[in-house]
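Record minuted for everyone:
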Amino acid sequence: MKKLKEISTLPPKQASKDECKDELTAFHKQLFELQNVFYADGRYGLLIILQGMDTSGKDGTIRHVMTCMNPMGLRVQSFKKPTEEEQKHDFLWRIYPHIPAKSMIEVFNRSYYEDITVPLVNNTLTEEKLKHRYKLINELEQHLVQNDIHVLKFFLHISEEKQEEKIKERLSKPHKRWKYSKEDEKAAKNWDAYTAVYDKLIEQCNDIPWHIIPADKRWYRNYSVAKIINKHLNQLNLKYPKS
């Protein structure tokens, strides 16, 4: 398996910005229809996980890919630093209420994978406990799939230079200033450590494979994610119930 540093964060040379934007518009129409029949069909749920470095575009991906769908069948859940109450329970406790029901699509903006990346970077868990978490996550995802809850995992892959550019953008543009956090710069200074952590995470929790999305260019990131979701839903042979 390739390391993240060996994978480009840029679109392939043959990718056309105009063509990808046109295809994204077409995907929006298709996703709207597919989600309708997905909801009506009722046999499956879908969990979409978005992970990536700070500023990798998780919010933007949700805004530009998912908002074409009917909000009655789509939910988004963001996972930040665990609250005091959440820390009293096992690390998956806060996840369970947000596992999608049949007919529903749930998007995780960050996820239970934060409970691996943060302890790894901060060296707060033993190797034995980390291995236990890898095992539980793999088992959870297999359990979901066995119960017809499909799982799509995306790692939004940006370069160190692009992250620095986006942090400066957050500081300079008033409508983005609210997104800025000192934690952004702290994470940026630990770029190599976070890259190594994600390499390990992707390697250890790959029973359900990851989609590594080049994310330096928003237009290609959005196009790629929409294309994969569209393809997955098309493969389910979804049908409206007979009246």
Q: What stands out?
A: The radius of gyration is 18 Å. Strands lie at 45-52, 74-78, 105-109, 149-157, 210-214.
